[in-house]
Every structure is written in structure tokens, then in C-alpha cells.
Amino acid sequence: MKNSFLKTLISFLLCTTFCVTADAQVNGRQGYVPTTNWPYLLEDFQKGVVVYNNDTVSMAKLNFHLRAQSLDCIDYNGKIARVSLSKFQCAIIDKEVYRFVNNMPMRQIYEEEDAMLMNHSYINYDVIDRGYNQGLALYARENMEVSVRANWNGHLNYANIHMPGEFNENYKELFLKRSDGQKLQINNVNYFVVKGKAFRAIPRECYDQLDKNAEKKLKAYIKAKNLKWKETEDQIAILQFLKQLI
User: Fold this and answer.
1) Are 81 and 72 in contact (CB under 8 A)?
2) HEC string for the chain
3) What is the distance between the alpha carbons of residues 209 and 239, in angstroms, rounded to a whole number?
4) Can you tell me the distance from the alpha carbon of 24 to that of 44, in angstroms, rounded to the nearest whole number?
């Protein structure tokens, strides 16, 4: 009953709260790249709705902080604040539904009873590490700073990289310098959530959820239907069959 009400509520909010067209949504995100000065999933904070466990809702300008893996909003003073997740169910931003799965914000691609396909975006810190490492090596070669080379352990502690939005900063000031930071490479991975269990939508992690007999059935189904693990529509088909086996 609870699930059914939430689905109805989300459908109502999607139909009535936002008037942005699908084309405008896509065009608004073309070419956007998060930076260390603006480590956010969306190019700007957008009007959205937060749905809580008691099915109450609140409206605010929202965005997802990729470093903190949090949902942020703009408060009445124009400062960036963090949305409490203690009673959080989901957020709706720009006609997209977002949920927290395993404490990670994920965009909902598909949902049916006891099964969801979700997309998780995260910063590829390995790229930052490599870039920092190359820059430091070049500096050492050019300046013959042996001590620098000796003290470099080959890995950047990215926890020490300051990425704004975590310290009650002024939204307008932060937005104006959003393009000044280092560009961040964002990786995306899809997750299956089946009967409350979340795992990546890849063969190994799916087969790990099954006994040998169920694994054979899933492999046979995928082969018979010629399904591809990296295709979203095929992932939905795999999810629907997988739910019957778990």
C-alpha cells in the first residue's frame, strides 16, 4: 500500500510540478563538465521536490554533490546546505527521480515491484591522481628537486583536495567561479536493486546473487534473447527475469 501511494505521488509530481520540456532538459546538459570548483552532478541547482518517509514533500533548489555523495539545497540565506537523509525517500529534479541506494545518490531508470534499475555517477579519482602525479614528476625533472620526488608516494590523497559546497558556502559566489577549477571525469555505472539488494548490473555481481541452477537459467535466457549487458533496454529485460530467480 505504501509503495503504491509513493508511486502515485511521484507520478502526480512529475506531471504537475515541472513544465520543462524533454528537449530543454537534454539541451541544458550538453557539454557540461563538473570541476573541482563545482563538483555537482547538474550544471546548476534546479527546482525539485524532496519526498519524505511520511509522504510529506518540500520544494527547494537541489543538486547532488559528487564528492560528498549528498543532496544539497540552497537555503533562505543563499548558502549551500545539506539535505538530511534521515527521513528521505526520494527527490524529483527536472522530471528525474533520484534515490539513495547504499548511501549513494542514484538516478532511477526503471522501476517495477521489488526491482529497480538505477544509475550512479561518481568522480574518477584515478584520473586526478595520474594528472597530479605527472605534474609533480615534470616539476621534479625541471627543478631537480630530489626531495620532492623522495617524498612523493605515488598516490594523491584526494580527501585533501578542497572541493566547494561542503562548508556552508555562498551559492552565488561559488557559481561564478564554477569554471575555474580542474575538470572532473565522471564515471557512470548502472545498478540493479532487487528485493532490497543492490549490486552492479554486470555479469559477475548478478551471478553472485544466484545458486548454480538459477545462474544457468539466467545465462540461457540472456543467450536465447541475445541480450547485451551494456544496453539499457537489455538490462531491464535481464532485471525482470533476474527478479524471478532471487
Assistant:
1) yes
2) CHHHHHHHHHHHHHHHCCCCCHHHHHHHHCCCCCECCECECCCCCEEEEEEECCCCEEEEEEEEECCCCEEEEECCCCEEEECCCCCEEEEEECCEEEEEECCEEEEEEEEECCEEEEEEEEECHHHHHHHHHHHHHHHHHHHCCHHHHHHCCCCCCHHHCCCCCCCCCEHHHHHHCCCCCCECCEEEEEEEEECCEEEECCHHHHHCCCCHHHHHHHHHHHHHHCCCCCCHHHHHHHHHHHHHHC
3) 12
4) 14
Q: Which residues of the chain are under the pLDDT cut of 50? A: 1, 12-13, 16-28, 132-162
Q: Quickly tell me which residue has 524529483 as its cell.
A: 92
Strand partners, 82: 72
Instruction: Supply the pLDDT for residue 200.
Output: 97
pTM of the model: 0.77
Q: Cell numbers of 201, please?
A: 548490473
